Amino acid sequence: MTTILPLGLLDKAISSRVWILMKDDREFEGTLRGFDDFFNMVLENVIELDNGKKNKLEQILLNGTQICLIVPGGEIS
């Protein structure tokens, strides 16, 4: 069985769509362009879901300390 570490899994998700849940219950879906060792992330072509309202953003930088959940290939329902 091959061990996959979190950074390795995220590295495989570069240029793919990801779904991210933040600690403040906001959700983001976008194309992962990059990240660092602290899980700060750059997403492009983003949909933000905040209190039931959807907002489209061209690009966003998310603070890794505020991320609760990352789902590679996930979508906002």
TrEMBL record:
Pfam families: LSM (PF01423). Keywords: mRNA processing, mRNA splicing, Nucleus, Ribonucleoprotein, RNA-binding, rRNA processing, Spliceosome, tRNA processing. It is found in: Nucleus. One of its GO terms (biological process) is mRNA splicing, via spliceosome. GO terms for cellular component: Lsm1-7-Pat1 complex; spliceosomal complex; U4/U6 x U5 tri-snRNP complex; U6 snRNP. One of its GO terms (molecular function) is RNA binding. Residues 5-76 form the Sm domain. InterPro entries: LSm5, Sm, Sm_dom_euk/arc. Plays a role in U6 snRNP assembly and function. Binds to the 3' end of U6 snRNA. LSm subunits form a heteromer with a doughnut shape. PANTHER family: U6 SNRNA-ASSOCIATED PROTEIN, U6 SNRNA-ASSOCIATED SM-LIKE PROTEIN LSM5. Belongs to the snRNP Sm proteins family. This is U6 snRNA-associated Sm-like protein LSm5. It comes from Paramecium pentaurelia. The gene is LSM5.
